[in-house]
Amino acid sequence: MTTPLLTRVKSTLFVHSRRRSRTLIEGEFASVFHGRSLDFDDLRDYVPGDEVRDIDWKATARHSAPLVRRYVAARKQNLMLVVDTGRGMAALAKGGEPKKEVAIAAAGLIGYLAYRHGDLVGLVRGDSSGAVAHELRGSEAHLERLLRAIHDATRLDASRSELAALLGWVARNVRRRMLLLVVADDLELDDQLAGLLRRLQVQHEVLWLTVEDADPTVLSTTRAAVDVSDHHVLPTSVRTDPRVRAAYAEAAAARARATAAALDDVRISHGRVGATSDVLTAVFGLLERQRRAVR
Length: 295
Description:
Helix content is 42%, strand content 19%. By secondary structure, the chain is α/β, with parallel strands linked by helices. The protein folds into two domains: 36-71, no CATH class; 78-293, von Willebrand factor, type A domain (Rossmann fold), CATH 3.40.50.410. It comes from Intrasporangium calvum. Residues 42-255 form the DUF58 domain.
């Protein structure tokens, strides 16, 4: 029997969360959407700029330092997962597992946190053959269906990735303001993508997570490496050449810097992850950067 994908996500979350405070798991995602309502959330230290009316004077007296109340926003936050399901995402990630497994872990983690806070989660996935949209809902069963759709669509025999077309579809068809999580292949942003991201950033709040490519020069296999985008073969004798390794490392680092600079330029919080074991750290780092950006 196949293990539900969401079960894998939750088990990873709770195993790793033992090393972290419970408040991080419960509160970090919600902190992006804090607002004023009747739903009390927790207390935190007063910082300059907080409203005096939010100070809890009884708690302050016990604590001997000012504490302010935080409230959970009354509105629901709509989260749209935007996931590249082209054949490039079926290739290996930096950690040696299929990139789609890393994408599912990341999308599942943020989707589960959104669900836990009463938010609605949807999905837009696609490749060069077109985009497919899944409606917004707020249940574990629905989130499992979204993750399964990503898993089943991302295959080596699928069409090539076409992120510009996918983001263009979102820009044209997703009218309601949402939080967009873009899970993308390891690529360098061109002018077309940068223009789309500027448009999306005006319409929505955008988070970007890159799934890092495996380094073909260090793969632990004696077989020839194959580029899934064009099926070109990189023979073992070539990819193990020290000069090829150095050139590849330099090119990969340059691409990562260029992508980061392009995302910074359009003020989109972004991160990189290369293995499912690193997803928790990458996701919470991404959410923390977003939280600071919206302050």
